[in-house]
Structures are given as C-alpha cells and as structure tokens.
Amino acid sequence: MSVCRLILPDQLSLTISSLQRISDNDHVLMIESYDYFTHVKHHKKKIVFLLSAMRHFADQLRQKGFNVTYIPLEDVTRKDSLKKLLVGFIKQHAIKHCMVTQPSEYHWQQEVQSCDEQAGCHVELLDDHRFLCTNEQFSAFAAGKKQLRMELFYRQMRQQHQVLMDGDKPIGGQWNYDQENRKPPKSGLDIPDTYHTTIDKQTQAIIELVEENFSDHFGDSLPFHFAVTRRQALVALKQFIQARLALFGDYQDAMLQGEPWMFHSHISFYLNCGLLLPLECIQQAENAYHDGLAPLNAVEGFIRQILGWREYVRGIYWLKMPEYVTQNFFEAKRALPDFYWTGKTAMNCLKQCINETQQNAYAHHIQRLMILGNFALIAGIAPDEVNEWFHVVYADAYQWVELPNVSGMILFADGGYLASKPYAAGGNYVNKMSNYCKQCRYKVSVKNGENACPFNYLYWDFLARNHDKLSNNHRLGMVYRIYQRMDPEKQQSIAQDAKRFLQSLD
Asked: Which CATH code of 3.40.190.10, 3.50.30.30, 1.25.40.80, 3.40.50.300 fits the domain covering 135-192+244-320?
C-alpha cells in the first residue's frame, strides 16, 4: 500500500521526518496553492523565495530517486486550496495513509488534519525533528510556571545539547554576554555585503509569475539575491561565519542608515524553510570560536538566538495556541498607521526601516523590536494589526515565530508571560544605537512640542496610560518614580503632545 508523503513549503529538508523510511511506491507530494500565499498576503520577495526553493528542492528529490508529484501554481486556480488539492490527490490515487511533518503554523495544521474525514484517509502528523526541543519537552519546562523566562530555558538547552560547555559549566564562566553586545555604531565600520545568488532561469520565471499573480502584495520582487538551494544556503552560512560573525556580538544592536544587513547572519530565511538546520549553524559558530575566528561574546550571542530564543518562542506558540492570538493586555485599539505600508512618515528611523523592509523583506531584530515594534507599542496599536503586518512583510515570518515575538516580546500583549517587561524606549535609545536621528525632521534633544521626537513623549504617555497595569512591575519602578517627580505641567504637556500626534495618525 502506497503512502502519501506531503511536504509543505517550509519543510525543504532531506532529513524531514516525513521523508524517512520511505518506500519506492510512496508518493512525495508538493503543492503550490494560492491560499498558502494569500491566507496572509506575503511579501512578493518571500513568495519568489519559497516558490523557487520549493521547485529546486523538488528537482533535488527527483535526482535522488523519489517519486515526486509537484502541483505548480500554473496548473491550479485561485479556488483550488491546499486542502482541496490534497484531498483530490488522495482520492485519485486511493491513498489510505498520508504522512506529514507537523505544520509549523496552527492554521495549516488544522487544514491538513481536517482532510482525514473528507478524503477517507488517515493523516499522520510526525514530529518536526529540525527543532531541538519537542513540544512535550517544552510543556514539561513550562509546567506550573505563571511566567516563563528564556534564560532558564536557554541554559537547559545548552546543557542538554552540550553547546559551549566545559563539563557542566559554560565555557568562559558566563551563560551569556548580552551586556557586551550593545555597542553603538561607530564611524568607519567596514560592513561586508550579504550573500548574493545568481538568478537562474527557474527563479526568473517565478519572479515573472509573482509579478503577474501577486501584483497587489507588499514589497519588491527585485533585487533578488536569496539562496534558493541547500548548497547556496550553506555558502551563505559560511560567508557569515567567516566575514561577519566576529563583529556580530559587538554590533548586533546597532543601526546605520543605508546599511540594512549590518553584521547579522541573514540565515533565518533558510532556517525557517528547512534549507539550513539549527544544529549545523550552532556547530559551525562554536567551531569558529574554538578555531579563534570569532570571540566568545559574538558566538554565544548568535547561538543564543537559535538555541535559546528561536526554540523558546516556538515552544510558547504551540503551548498557548490558539488563545495566544487574542491576547491584548493593554487593550490597544488604534489602527495601524498607513505609513507602515508606504514609508511616508517624517520620522526618519521608521521611514528607513519600512523602506528597507519593502525592498529586502528583511530588517534585523533591533529594527523590528526597538523601532517598528516600539512605536506600535507606545502608540497603542491593536495587536492583531501589528501581527498581521509583521507576518506579511518579512521573508522569515511564519506565525510560530512571528506571533510570540510580536504579541509577547514587542507588544507585551500576553501580560508578561514571555518577557519580564515591555520593551518601550524613548528617542535617546534610537539616537544612541543608530545615526537615524541626524537626518530627521524631529529633534531627539527636544522633549515636548511639535519639533520634539515623538518617541520622547509617546514613551512617557504610554507609561502614564498604563500605570495601573505596569506600576507594580519591578523592572519599571525607577521610571515610574521619575515620572511621578515631574512637574504637573510637564506631565500635562506630555499628554497633550501625545494626543496631538496620535490624532494625526487617524
């Protein structure tokens, strides 16, 4: 009896569980469907990237002798959902058993599982072994805890996988070097370019397909330089290790106008669709430390993003879905400003990050957290609209990683389950960690009035608006004492400036 092995668009790994112990008469099924790319209206560049990576992966499977059925967009209509096409294939081939690695997103898991009854076929979900912490392991970690903290989880993962360990102790005597990884940018930094692939005929055809069929989606298809094969992704990883890792730690929080890539790895695209595996990235970084190619603060900081944060947010996602989608601790209701889509704002930091996002389908984590996210937080923008935007615009965005980062880390919408405090900040932070403020119409040194940086008064207004919910947070006690010591006139001017600015967004 043949088995259908369904491979979803973000499962492009030869080691994926659904391809193991496969028989010669089993069907490997890959589907391009409009609903996969329009359920959330993904950035054009993300669609180009995934479609090209999928087709190149299918070619690789065929070369290795797999029996691949590939359903391209050219052969389907907009009414042909992934579920409809899967059910149709199962019925056509009289398949009684379908195997699929657990979908990364709750919606697609529900869609695939619901094929059971409709198709008269047993759909078996397999664990996704590309992640280093199972859902069961994370549930055990979270059991009995009202709040979770990544640091404790990260230490357990380091010990479990023996990463940067000297016996039972961390190499260097510290678990993390976060305090060393917050240097502001300095002039004269020599920043290597990101990885650039050559567009082949297959990718070029897909660019044309996307421009024709997804013309109303956000972002630019070109220039396109992402890796679309595992071989290319491995080269991109190697380039990071050799050219940027050494300074990644020092400048991972830094932002420079005209330098969207900085010293970051830019491999999240490949990790999240399966072209790279987390453990191999971790091991290459650890080897770079032992070989003297990169300092411990850089290597540990990079590894913490993968072994710590990435695994942590995935665990929270599956632990808290589907209820996590509706979390709104601050009861924020403001609509997302139109400039998030157009980049037309006088705030230079936002304009730079949005324009780069439109072009690259990428912004590094501090741009996302402390510029784009920080503004959404202190302006009181509704979590569902912020989540949708982040899910749409980034090529590495899938709900499992986007939702906990946005609702938990950025917006504190879960009330502190994921993070210990809201990551709100005024203009001084932006000025310290970037050169954006030098070319801004607003003045970061001015605290009130029409020429003042909006981050300055929105920060204090956010704290004032949410006093009842935040004043008992032990990490915010000092800032609330500062606010309480302000003159009443100062507090009133903050409220008036915030009201004026926020009304201008409506």
From this structure: 1.25.40.80
What distance in Å separates the CA atoms of residue 446 and residue 325, rounded to the nearest whole number? Answer: 38
Answer for the pair 44, 128: CB distance below 8 angstroms, yes or no. no
| CB-CB contact of 16 with 101 (8 Å) | yes
pLDDT tens digit sequence for 380-423: 999 999 999 999 999 999 999 999 999 999 999 999 999 999 99
Which pair of tokens denotes residue 481? 């004492």
Q: How many CB atoms lie within 10 A of CB 188?
A: 5
Domain parsing of the chain, residue ranges: 4-126, 135-192+244-320, 339-505
Question: Among the residues of 219-267, which ranges form H helices?
Answer: 230-243, 245-251
Which fold does the domain 339-505 belong to in CATH?
Answer: DNA Cyclobutane Dipyrimidine Photolyase, subunit A; domain 3 (1.10.579)
Whole-number Å distance between alpha carbons of 121 and 251: 52
- pLDDT on residue 355: 98
3-state class (DSSP) for residue 407: helix
Per-residue model confidence (pLDDT) at position 188: 85
Fold of 4-126: Rossmann fold (3.40.50)
Q: Convert the pLDDT of each residue in 476-502 to its tens digit.
A: 999 999 999 999 999 999 999 999 999
Q: What are phi and psi of 109, to 5 degrees?
A: -65, -45
Distance CA 450, CA 8 (A): 50
Question: Which residues have CB under 8 Å from 17's CB, separation 6+?
Answer: 101, 126, 127, 128, 129
